[in-house]
Every structure is written in structure tokens, then in C-alpha cells.
Amino acid sequence: MEYLHTAEHPATRTPARYYRMVSPDGEHVGNINLRLDNSEAITRYAGHIGYEVLPEHRGHRYAANAVRLMIPIAREHGIDPLWITCDPGNTASRRTLELAGAEYVETVSVLYNNAIFLAGHPRKCRYRLQTAQESNAHKVPSEQP
Fold this sequence. Notes:
Elements: E1 2-8, E2 15-22, E3 28-35, H1 40-46, E4 49-53, H2 62-76, E5 82-86, H3 91-99, E6 103-109, H4 115-118, E7 123-129, H5 133-136
Antiparallel strand pairs: 1-2, 2-3, 3-4, 5-7, 6-7
């Protein structure tokens, strides 16, 4: 993973740290960001982490590994737990979060006036990932697809 910059996240208007996901041989495979805020809009709907893997690199667990690499960074910023959300029908993202060691907590309806709802996402699955070192020591995702 390669740090890019810290800037305001355009959708949530909160500070976020941006990273590039890279393969073991250094190829750019996707992006991930950590939103540095604990507001209800983040913890309930948007989530602390957003990620995307380029289509030609999907299926190699890059996102699950990148989410795990966010844990110490989140801890440094006082975020515990990490809340990560995805759309209920996004089975790939749900599997990614499970592989990263996150626990499914619930599916919520997004408030009708929230930017996420207005962007076409009326429901979100909420996953929790503890950032305390001891609680995640045994949950490292497999390197094998």
C-alpha cells in the first residue's frame, strides 16, 4: 500500500487519508481511503473505509488485505472500532469484509435526506472491525484466493 495524501472526502466532507493498493510486484491494483471522523453519518452509513479494486485485479484479496493494513492507521487516529459499510447486494464487498475479519452487525435504512440515500443507496450493511491489537491478532486473511 502506498500513501497518496490527506484531503477532505468529497462525499462526506470529512478528512480522509488516501492510499493506492499495489500488488506484490508493485502494480497499481486499486485504491482505499480512511475517513477520519466518528460522526453518525460515517459510523452508520458511509463507513470509515472506502475501497475499490480495478476490475482486472479482482479476486486476489487485495481489498481484504488493504482493509487489514488500515487497522494500525485507524488506531493511531483514535478510531476503535472501524465501521465499514456496503450495499446489501454487493456480495463481493461483503465477502471482502468477512475475509478482513470484520463482523456483520446489521443492515440499516439510510435517512432519506442523507447524501448516500440520494446517491441511490437506501440500505447499508454495517460491519465492525476492532482496531485493538489483541482482538485482531488471529484474523489475518489468507494470501491465497
